């Protein structure tokens, strides 16, 4: 019907605008943070300013600033793979005058999960940064630790657990399934999508956090990897191929940090 096509166009148009706006803000944020430089650390690496307070800034202010930018960054990174899941949700709900509001509620629930992820990531990053600044020996070991994290992340991509989480993301809601058109169901569906997605993306996101949360190139690569493994016809094989590449990168990082490469 014409009304269904108009609703679909409106949905895709809003998603495109939201992606463009969040990507532009993320690029601006990364550019401003990069202009401030990074802190040289023992071991020949530099620490991101994302884990530090700006002059005159309180820790609650720094946390709020990080969290705001984290949410915007997650919208830019996750929206390309979320849109197909939202389309399937809309098909499962069927025709209703509240479809736009219900879709928005699913999206809010989904990104709430990623917000909680950011709330947990910031104090952990700050604590690690503080320890590395106070203990030069630990700072020198950081490049090897980064390589180990990347290695573990690559290994995770090859597990049956990863395959199960990826299948949940690729098929939710299941084909032929119908969902009630009510706010409670939409909210719970968004939270479930967010949980499955955060589990599925644990490896790539760990790589992003240790390689550089403000690095636009790393963001682009991780976004592409997440999107392709969700949308490609052979997603599980793609995930394993990504895992193999990440394993190789982890080994290379460890070899370089140990002075072997």
TrEMBL record:
Protein name as catalogued: Metal-binding protein
Transmembrane segments: 59-83, 104-131, 137-156, 238-258
Keywords from the named record: Membrane, Transmembrane, Transmembrane helix
Keyword Membrane listed: yes
Top-rank lineage group of the source organism: Bacteria
Keyword Transmembrane helix: yes
